[in-house]
Amino acid sequence: MTMEKLLDALLESDRFQALLARPGIRLARAETPGHPYVLAALARAVDGPILAVAAGPREADRLARGAEAFLGTTGAALFPAWEALPLEGISPTPAVAARREATVRRLRRATGPLVVAAPVAAAIQRLGPWLGLRRPIELSAGVEMAPDELAERLVGLGYVREDLVQHRGEFAVRGFIVDVFPGDAAHPARLEFAGDEIERLRAFSPATQTSISPIGG
Q: Which tens digit of pLDDT belongs to each residue from 35-83?
């Protein structure tokens, strides 16, 4: 349930249409609480993605969440900045790397309205041409993929193999059980294999290593 119908009043207004029709650089002003509303309307008007640059990460997050209220989860995304500058020698967290990858992938495939909100630091950082091109591994019960093959693909995506999975970006293999913690997931997943076929998936606690709930019904 979204508030997308509320965008119609702005889209149909004479002033908004005149602004869209004006050639060259167009400048308009809206009060801060109305920014997500205007951004969602602009994305609807162009029927494609638009980039909203905010002062910082909190402001960008508010823009993304606000636009999502009008366009739904598929119509808004946050593009976070790295948590450290390249020369600081600090590796980015898997959560940030996964979020950036997922957002660019959505941008490359966008076929309708999409508001991408980014802090200034993210908007001015250069992007590798490969970002968003790597195909994610889609796993569910019934998928055939040997545990060793899955391990090789995870390494290729930058995952680190450990004895126990405790942090995002890690995976572990114990016979016919593979634990993996995706960078954008709230909990790690435990995949139980029957031969080369995934039999079931369960979310588990990295602190206790015990299962929490089934994944995917």
A: 999 999 999 999 999 999 999 999 999 999 999 999 999 999 999 998 7
Count the helix, strand and coil residues of the chain and give each as a percent rounded to the nearest 5. Answer: 40, 20, 40
Cα→Cα distances 3→12, 70, 115, Å? 16, 5, 15
Which of 137, 139, 174, 142 lies closest to 159 in space, CA to CA? 137
Which token pair is 101?
A: 């990858």
How far CA 183 is from CA of 23, 45, 47, 101, 196, in Å, comes to 42, 33, 30, 10, 25
Q: Which amino acid is at 70?
A: F
Kindly give, in sequence order, each residue whose CB lies less than 8 Å from that of residue 122, ignoring residues fewer than 6 positions away. Answer: 60, 79, 80, 81, 82, 100
Q: What are phi and psi of 168, to 5 degrees?
A: -60, 145
pTM of the model: 0.78
- Please state the φ and ψ torsions of residue 135, each to the nearest 5 degrees: -75, 130
Fill in the amino acid letter for 36: P
Q: Which of 136, 143, 134 is nearest to 191 (CA)?
A: 143
Nearest to 193 by CA among 139, 155, 138: 139
Question: In terms of Cα–Cα distance, which of 202, 196, 118, 189 is closest to 159?
Answer: 189
